Each structure stands twice: as structure tokens, then as C-alpha cells.
Amino acid sequence: MTSTNAGHSGDGDWLVGNPTGGQLASALWIGSVGLLILGLQPVLLGALYTEGHVSGDELALVATAEMIAIAIGSAIVAMLLSARNMRWKSAVLLLLLALANVWTAYAAGANTLMAARALAGLAEGGLVAVATELIARSRRAERIGGFFVTMQTLAQCALALLLALYVIPAAGSAGGFLILAVVCVLSLIVAFVVPADYADLPKDENLTNVLTIPSITALLCVFCYFMFFGSVWAFLEPLGAQFGIDGRTVGLIVSASLAAQVSGAMMATAFEARIDYRLAVAAIGVVALVCSLVLASGPDLITFWMAALAMGFILLFIVPYQIRLAITADETRTAVLLVPAAQLFGLAIGPIAASLLIDGKDFRPVPEFAAASAVASVALLGLFILVSRRRRAVA
Fold first, then answer.
1. Transmembrane region positions (predicted)?
2. Which of 201, 203, 242, 346 shows the greatest Cβ crowding within 10 Å of its Cβ?
């Protein structure tokens, strides 16, 4: 088994190092375990809400605590820690996440749940960085990023269906979190296939290249897009309940939406080189706006299904183009390492910001907030294009 040795020059598709296909797949799986919660939040948090463990406002706080912790964890590992001993780091993070999931299963009270999910988020963020650090070293980061989101979403889809149809009806939310702990323990086998060390990128990994207007604008564009999705996704079950859709049906809608995400990720992976990233990001922003307005209009069951499926499709279809956006903003690829953090901060801030607008049990302001976030994402893309053109003209 070869590993990506530090300082080794790139070969073929790699800027530095030359990991085997098995090593790449294992790193992507480790990152996927860290993001399983993204697809399962509506099912697991919806179950916590239905069981009376959290109120609507507390649900938003629990979701936000975990998403912010994932973003912090991914940024710390990607930017501040060396890419050495990745196998042992992966194993330790998996064990920490398993313990946090067990703690969540037996937690009593919203504050304890927030603490447990914050701990889980830090571990999950570190696992995400195991994958994104390797993706950043590829000459075809967009394509491998597409494979990454496809893998994680397939796993989310299968687990969401399992939890919604069998585990949660029989064992409640606690059973769902215990299943996640089991997945972490089983993944320890995969952790020791990850490259032991990642080769150093030919640059200093610091924030200098991120603190520019193009990089900041690009990351804010990503942030606002995921804020759109995070706000609706966290409140999908209570939003559906307001329109007369039961929790079991919403669970099926979540699973189907995850399947749509797989389709979106696969299509983006196949066509990412044929579509200009600016056109893709703008068009998807418009679709996000339309979906949000539909959900705010009090849709019937069929329309609710269609909007949720459309949101699922566009969520991951956009990811390879967001990676290209970040690479264009900063060719040293420092900004690319922060794309997951921008995505996760968006997913975190979306629910808590939208929750401030909720009036009692009226959840319609949630998709209205999502619509505003989608508009902001497209506007920031326009600003990025304008700034980039001016910089090229000056150069």
C-alpha cells in the first residue's frame, strides 16, 4: 500500500502525492461519515421535536450548535493542523463522534443535547477535513468533489430511509443516534486505509490568500446559498405539519430528496466541465428562489414533494461549481479548504436566523427567509464577477 508522502511531486491528476484509488475512496468515506448528519437532521431532529425533547426554538439551537461546530472543526483541521498521521486522527475522531452520538441518545434536556451535538460537530468537522484536504491536492478537485458529495448522499439516503421506516418508529430518536454510533465504530476499519500522511501543497497554508475581496465574496456566495437550504431543511417536518403533512410522510420526502441529491451530484460530476460555473451558480440560485416561494405559499402534498425534490437536486449539483468558484478566486487553493466551512456555517446560521422570524406555530417565514438568502447568493456572485473583471483589467 502506497501513501502520499510529504514533499512528493504530483503525478497525473495530483498536484502533489499520488494516492491509490482505495486510499482516495477511504478518505472520501471518512469525510462522508462526518456529514451523515446533514441528510438525517430532518428525521432525527424532527423526532426529537415530536417526542417533546426540544421546542421549535430549541430545535434550531441544537441544529445550529452542531453545524457551527462542524464548520469550526473542519477549518481547524484544514488550516491549523498538519496533514500527518491521518489514519490515527481519523480513528480518534470516529471514536469521539461515536461517543457523542451515544451521549445524544441518552441526553435529557435541550442544553445537554446542544452540548452533545456541539461535541459531535467538532469531530464531524475534523472528519470532513480528512476528505477535503485530499481533494484540494487534486488537479481535478471539482470532479472528486462531485464523487465526494455523491458518496455521502448515497449513505445519507440509505440511512434516512432505514431510520424513518424502521428505527425511529421502533426505538425513537435515541435509536437513530445509536445507529450513527455503530456506523462510526464500523468505519474504524476504513480509517486505516487512509493515506498515513498527505503530501504538502506547494504553498504556505495560511489565511493571506483568503483575505481578498474575490475570495471573501466567493465564500459569502457559498455561505448564503447553504443558508437558504439549511433554514428550510431544519424545519421541514414542522413546516410540512403546518400544511397537513404527517411526520412519516416528511421522512419519506427527506429520503427521496436525498436520492435527488445523489442524482444532482452525479449529473454535476458528469457535466461540470461543460457548464460555466457562473451560469450554473446563477441558474441554481434562481431555482432556489422559486422553491422557497413555493414552500411559502402553503403548497399541497404534491407541490411540497416537487419543491423538496427540486431543492435536493440543486443542493449538491452546485457543489463542483462552488469549488471552481473558490479556485478562480484563489488559485493557491487556500480558499477551497474553507468551502466546507462556508457551507456548514450557512447550514448553521440558516435555522437560527429563520427561527427568529417564526411567530408561534407559523413556520411560513422560514421559506421566506430562504428566498432572501438565495437572492443574496446570486447578488454576491454578480459582485464576484464584477470584482474579478476589474482585477483582470488592472492587471
1. 27-49, 61-83, 90-108, 114-135, 147-168, 174-198, 210-236, 248-270, 277-296, 302-323, 335-357, 369-387
2. 346
